[in-house]
Design goal:
By secondary structure, the chain is an alpha+beta fold. It has helices at about 1-5, 45-55, 95-100, 100-109, and strands at about 15-20, 25-30, 30-35, 70, 80-85. It contains four helices and five strands; from the N terminus they run αβββαββαα. It has a five-stranded antiparallel beta sheet.
């Protein structure tokens, strides 16, 4: 209901993609990832992401999400939230040998 009201987005499917200490992520219509902070302490990080991600995207050598949907707090949900197209690839956490090396740091630059 929230996504339909704010973005006129009709859901045909939804599944939990992941959950962490600050956010829950859902895969909607097998195409969109929506991340919702679930604690007040996570709001500063969400605001920073909304503000800074478009800038960083221009300067990074790897894919980062385009924030297609930026949700506003409302009666149904008290915090801002974001939605973006699902990126293809593997999770960074699946790249443990690469993450633990200097090679990875070079790739980020």
């Amino acid at each position: 209901k929230l996504l339909n009201e704010q973005f006129n987005l009709t859901m045909t499917s939804i599944s939990l993609l992941g959950e962490g200490f600050d956010n829950s992520a859902f895969l909607v219509n097998e195409q969109w990832v929506f991340r919702f902070p679930h604690r007040k302490e996570a709001l500063a990080c969400m605001h920073n992401e909304i503000t800074l991600l478009p800038y960083y995207k221009k300067h990074l050598s790897f894919a980062v999400p385009d924030l297609t949907f930026i949700g506003k707090p409302c009666e149904q949900y008290p915090y801002p939230f974001v939605g973006y197209e699902l990126l293809k690839g593997r999770l960074l956490t699946e790249q443990r040998p690469l993450v633990d090396s200097q090679e990875f740091a070079t790739l980020l630059g």
